[in-house]
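Sat 14:20. Reprocessing the chain from the morning session after the first attempt stalled halfway. Input below, unchanged.
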Amino acid sequence: MNRPRKLLALAGASALIVTLAACGDGERETDSGNGGSSGSGGESDDAGSSAPWTLGTTESVTAMDPAGSYDFGSWNMQYNIFEQLLTIPAGADEPVGDAAESCDYDDPQTITCTLREGLTFSNGNELTSSDVLFSLQRNLEINDPNGSSVLLGSISNGDAENQALADGAIETPDDLTVVFNLNQPDTTFLKLLSTATTSIVDEESFPADELAADDAVIGSGPYALESFKKGEQAVLVANESYDGERAGAAPQIFVTYFSDPAALRTAIASEQVDIAWRTLSPTDLNSLEDEGKVDVLRGEGSEFRYWVWQTGKGGPGKDVAVRQASAQLIDRQAIADNAYDGTVTPSLSIVPPGFAGQKDSFGEVYGDAPDVDAAKAILDDAGVATPVKITLGYTPTHYGPNAVDEATEFADQLNESGLFEVELADAEWEEYQTLYKEGAYDLFILGWYPDILDADNYLTPFIRDGGFFENGYSNPEVNSLLDQELGETDTAKRDEQIGQLQDLTANDVPLIPSWNGQNVAVATGKMSGVEETLDPTYIFRFWGISKSE
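Finished this time. Tokens:
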């Protein structure tokens, strides 16, 4: 996976009683599809006007089937192949209708969605409310270990081992109506309905109890999958039966998969691909920008890199003073400068800037620069003998070539304080995920990109009962506040609760925020609409991108 994530029932919206704009009711940003710079333009109002184009990426596809994946490479293909009930337009943070004409809260635990009339899948089969029910039910029941069914907790039976749709959780009184009866108040559920985990699949084509083959998936989105060869190439073609607001300009799109960022850099520099997105190293991005032959486009991002303390395996991380001392010693600016060539921004909270309720709690408690004397005082007051011996873990390739630089930089900072004695250890991603949960590392690095644009998506997954990374941390006050903010409809009260959660995290230090990153792509001068899709959702909207001849 591109990021490790396991959480309970989450997604995000700031208001409880919301009526979403119907498809076709709002004005759509337009782009002629006939040239212009890669930073101008938006969704095309002239479907088919673009030349075919190629995206190069080092992301991989775990599964094309929405029930079998929870990663960037897979989700971004699914956003383009399938419809969801709702969608987040480029540059926006609130959902609008997609397959649904509207979705409304009837009360804090009930949502009614009305589908657009005449929806069909790319194979010609009709899309109805029955397909919506089938899609979510099979996602839960398949419960694939690489899947994202954990996001559906508000409609699940709550049994982690034998996960299923709760009785009465989804009603389909007619072909165009879907009613969600949630098991708890959840102000974030509307945004969940815009994520790839809720993609609508054809119940006549997909097996109910196992994943569909990658090259056999059928959707109703703006593009249909023509062919797929894992690790090499995917080919998408415009879905002729699609009639929604996301119609794409290009008749055909190629996605080429690279195993090495250096090879991707060569491909975009020589224009063998039209766009390079995820992931080039900071050094490559800076050099491409200096050369000036292609456009390096930097959009607002919500990427989060952080260090997790293992608190529950009997190691040094069980002592809050040790954790607090490490938070007092980290030099985030040095990490940003030395490991990432200044392309990332130091993070002083587990919630990124720009999210409602965000506050720099770690900065308030520990300052924005390292303080060895303060760290020593914390350890001395707690009677902790120094140097504290710890194993610091990282994975060398999953987060790109600069992860080792960050790990080395942070280890040096801890060692040079004289308060810690750090041993570095690493493993490739698949093994790394197992090792950090088993307690092989006292302190280990992870990365995160949001499922939905809501502060809770940076809280519940991390600080409720060990988080998805199973680090042993649990605080009843934290759990109570999480329940409160998830159901709170008063914006000011919810922001205050979210702030309190960040303060508690800074005091307990189950994890240490490191940096926030931008959403960056590189494109040739023939491309339009690329920059606009570079927003904090990290949805790469193929339908809004065009290439001049």
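The radius of gyration is 23 Å.
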